[in-house]
Amino acid sequence: MSLAAIYRALRPELDDPDLDARLDAMCAAADAALERPCDRDALVRALAALSEPPARWTEAGAGELAIALACAAGDERAVRRFESLYLVNVPQMLAHMKLSESTLDEVVQRVREKLLVGAPPRIVEYAGLGRLPGLIKVTAVRTALTLVRDARRDVHDETAVLELPAEHDPELAFLAHAYRGAFREAFASAVAELDPRERNLLRLHFLDRVTLDRLATMYAVHRATIVRQLAAARAKLAERTEAALRARLHIRPDELASVMDLIRSRMDASVDRLLESVDHLD
């Protein structure tokens, strides 16, 4: 059975008049990525598992997919290829975090385990779409943040958003002090209600100081889209926090509004420390 016939049998609804030529190009790209002939049957079946139609395949994606499939099959040469093409860039990705050499080594090891261990390995879920560099960047940053956070957990004040100097507004300072515990619980609950993408965007932008342009590149969207998504995530976080506070507290609406005005006014300055205090972030 030809490669095109295998694909058509699996995805007849995505048939393409140029399918044979596209499959030849994808196989050639896979061979180049692996630096040896790929498993063509496995590659075609993996391409058929993608939601993208043949017209949206890319050679970069096919190369990533071939490496991922070979790694998942336990091919040591493919693992070394993955390390030399992708994992080797992790220290540079995290250079701005000024981590120690031992911490960087630990990050690389954990990223390797997260992506290559499992049945099937997580790398296979993301490969084929030209997203491996972005996936590795996100995984490395999250892993590094976890290590750093664990190392200094005892020095973080998760209620920084409510630290308003008393001399500026004694009434708000009183409210902040009185409802600090309730806010901590409400914020954690609100974070848990965000979807993984929203949490990741907030975490990367506020904790790791990833720029809007870089986030747009990582997620393959326009910068304006990232701006809108971050704004929506912040608004959702404030709204869910307010709802959780309302459920926990029995105070006058004007008092709750004052606390929420304070929270919103200091959200940009303090969301990083608040996010670092929430243990269950993905």
TrEMBL record:
Gene3D superfamilies: Winged helix-like DNA-binding domain superfamily/Winged helix DNA-binding domain. It comes from the Bacteria. Coiled coil: none annotated. The keyword RNA-binding does not apply. GO terms for biological process: DNA-templated transcription initiation. InterPro entries: RNA_pol_sigma-70_dom, RNA_pol_sigma70_MYXXA, RNA_pol_sigma70_r4, RNA_pol_sigma_r3/r4-like, WH-like_DNA-bd_sf. Keywords: DNA-binding. The keyword DNA-binding applies. One of its GO terms (molecular function) is DNA binding. It holds the Pfam family Sigma70_r4. Residues 190-237 form the RNA polymerase sigma-70 region domain. This is Putative DNA-binding regulatory protein.
